[in-house]
Amino acid sequence: MTELTAEVVIAGAGPTGLMLANELALAGVDTVVLERMHERTGLSKALNLQPRTAEVLDLRGLLGRAEDRSFATVADGHFAVIPVSYAGWNTRHPYQLGIPQAEVEAALEERLAEQGVKVRRGYELTTFTQDANGVTVTAGDLRIRAQYLVGCDGGRSTVRKALNMPFEGIEGQGHGVAADVRFTKTPPGAPTEWRSMTNMVTSQAPGKFIGVIPLAEPNLYRISFGDRLNRPPNLRAEVTPDEVRTAVAERFGPEAEIAEIRWASRFSDDSRLAANYKVGRVLLAGDAAHTHFPAGGQGLNLGIQDAMNLGWKLAATIHNQAPAGLLETYESERRPVAQQVLDNVAAQNALIPTNPNQLALRALFRDLTAIPEVQHHLSGMVSGLNIKYATEDPHPAAGTRLPDFPLPQGHASTLFHKGNWVLLTKTPVPPPHTAVLVAQVPELPWPDVEKVLVRPDGYVANTTGVWPS
Ligand SMILES: Cc1cc2nc3c(=O)[nH]c(=O)nc-3n(C[C@H](O)[C@H](O)[C@H](O)COP(=O)(O)OP(=O)(O)OC[C@H]3O[C@@H](n4cnc5c(N)ncnc54)[C@H](O)[C@@H]3O)c2cc1C
């Protein structure tokens, strides 16, 4: 048995674990990242970054890497596959970036390695214990003593199960299959570029859906299909080539010839949320804390934003620089965000019609989305741009994201690259704390505001500039 010490152990090197590891490395926290798989699978799973996630990556100078690995810029988002525009939001990134999950992970792992942290692959966390001073984690021949453990180990989280954490929600009735399929030639009527969500998903029969998204290689498509009313007895059963062929034939006709099914996996429409995100010195983030049907393209985005919220709080706690109760705000801020996503996913599921009444409801709902305020509301939800955390400051800007506005040189986002707090002020003021970077600016996004204190994750702490106690 090899004994190690660390300040934090992260179980799982998916997008959530890798983002969190980057945040902790930036703050100088000694972190061990355990990943049970020997290699990244390369499966694409999630295909998009939402506007708020693009902003979050930009705050750390990571967006360029994701853009370099992306294959599409998608002008809109969607709610129940009804396109919704991000145009009404004050953001520099009013679009989805089309990028396979494996590429997001590769970009994050590359930056992590540059920060001197290597993911320990082939190490599966099997057990842990915790006491008042720390946690002891066992993974293969490693035993690690650390101050905190974060379970970023996905929907079937070992960490969550070991905590006996209730993971409740809606038990769905249906299921879906996602498969990356290469055709011998472009199937009839299939799009060749992913520019919008319009007509990306169609329905051949009540409750059934099939989505077709062109990927980076010629004739390679993400085919997602499913049935809202039926699920196979075993949701973990392998997807058979015949299932994929049948769905493809229903969508494109018999002449669509499949050259290769690169991978296929099944997903459920269950929605579940952990009762708590923190138990003593053990925390949960990403799919370990919440899982849902991938409607609207939100899961990976939620996980990366969990990590962005948790990283600086955990680092400040470890460095004894945190105001009392700061780490507890990770749950009080992020759990309601996940609940909102689960609720909007449930509403999206209900809008996949299974009978004529629901068909009429969907048509009516589609009409309503033509109203700009409705578009704004829906796109704010799926993008994460509408998030507002509770603060004591009554100003409407407090608790919202700082829009990335232009400065005489560059943009405000560049001030956050080191993961620090930022005080933006129109008049000279001393820093309220040594950890704060003060930047004098000619204008702020809110005309009536003289100064804003912004947290490392880009949310406005207050408009008074006073360090939170
Ligand atoms: C078909 C499909 C399509 C999707 N499409 C989208 C989309 O378009 N947009 C979107 O935002 N989201 C989408 N999602 C959801 C998205 O894939 C997940 O939300 C995302 O993977 C969550 O990231 P994570 O890091 O929290 O968990 P995971 O990606 O599950 O990563 C967990 C990691 O932990 C490792 N691990 C597990 N147990 C242990 C252990 N005991 N010890 C060490 N390591 C362990 C695993 O090997 C894995 O690498 C989709 C999901 C599916 C299934």
Secondary-structure blueprint:
Elements: E1 2-5, E2 8-11, H1 15-26, E3 31-35, E4 48-49, H2 51-59, H3 63-69, E5 72-74, E6 76-79, E7 82-85, E8 96-98, H4 101-114, E9 120-121, E10 125-130, E11 135-139, E12 142-146, E13 148-151, H5 158-162, E14 167-170, E15 175-183, E16 201-202, E17 208-214, E18 220-227, H6 241-252, E19 258-268, E20 271-274, E21 278-279, E22 282-284, E23 290-291, H7 299-318, H8 328-350, H9 356-368, H10 372-383, E24 421-425, E25 436-440, E26 451-454, E27 460-462
Parallel strand pairs: 1-12, 2-3, 2-13, 3-9, 13-22, 24-25
Antiparallel strand pairs: 4-8, 5-8, 6-7, 10-11, 11-12, 14-20, 15-18, 15-19, 16-17, 17-18, 20-23, 21-22, 24-26, 26-27
Flavin-adenine dinucleotide is lined by residues 11-17, 34-37, 45-48, 101, 124-125, 152-154, 158, 178, 265, 267, 286-287, 294, 297-301, 303.
Protein name: FAD-dependent oxidoreductase
Pfam families: FAD_binding_3
Cofactor: FAD
List the main descriptive attributes of the protein structure presented here:
Glutaredoxin; 6-stranded mixed β-sheet; FAD/NAD(P)-binding domain; 5-stranded antiparallel β-sheet; 10 helices; Alpha-Beta Plaits; 3 domains; alpha+beta; binds flavin-adenine dinucleotide; 469 residues
